[in-house]
Amino acid sequence: MKRFTTVVLTALAPVSWGSTYAVASELLPPDRPLFTGVMRALPAGLLLTALARTLPTGAWWWKSAVLGTLNIGAFFPLLFLSAYRLPGGVAAVLGSAGPLFVVGLAALLLGERASLRTVLAAVTGAFGVSMVVLTADAALDLTGIVAGVVSSVSMAAGTVMTKRWGRPEGVGPLAVTGWQLTAGGLVIIPVAALVEGAPPALDGKALLGYGYMMLINTGIAYWLWFRGIGQLSATSVTLLGPLSPLTAAVIGWAALGQALTPVQLVGMGIAFGATVAGQLAAARAARSFSSAEKNNRNISMDLTNEQVRR
What we know:
Layout: H1 2-17, H2 20-27, H3 33-52, H4 60-73, H5 75-85, H6 88-96, H7 98-109, H8 116-133, H9 142-165, H10 173-196, H11 204-231, H12 234-238, H13 243-254, H14 262-309
Helix pairs in contact: 1-11, 1-13, 2-11, 3-10, 3-11, 4-9, 4-10, 5-6, 5-9, 6-8, 6-9, 7-9, 8-14, 10-11
């Protein structure tokens, strides 16, 4: 039950990220994605750090900078570049390949050996997302494709390294999330100033949108995401990623009047089913690992006892 609760809470992060397009298109100034990235990350990071009342110490200054760059500072600009150079569907499919990168990096850096079922779940999830978001006239752009792939690799590396480094002793996920968001926001500021110039004037609607993006879409969502990474395997967490484009499609249908075709509905079912199957496979692997660990511990105790008897 504890694992189920953790998975559900972690899943709220990609579900929240699925609302980004609708909020940006309806409430925020147009053509300011990098400024939006700064407004999402930096205020949220400063707020969470203030609430946690804990600053990094020692090596965690540079570790926070690295993680913040991978998860936020590099990921946001590359994601937006991909979205501008490619149709939204193509960019979303490239993003849905992230779990495959995490599977490879987790095996290399964490020793998390993914089962065939996990790999199939990741591939099937990406296929389902492609059915939801791809259109027949989708055009390809090399710069956009490279940016989309690198953004997925950046987020995957950030997820794996967040799991590898964990947290300083006695420090909770709130503080670590605040450090990463602050570092990532600071990385984006010079890029936004160079590319987009001075910040735009903000009306009440924009302030409402940025308030939602900062508090819900970023602050709480990333806190839940990093909290989940601390309690679940990196692969299990990343397999929740397809929930983001699925949520975006549902919001587009329910709130923006966008129609869903039968193919899209089938794709949504496939992607959601793959997400559930991936979590079941990850839970099975976790139970197997726990059983093996317990057996090894019992064997060690038996050997110790035998030595005592001798």
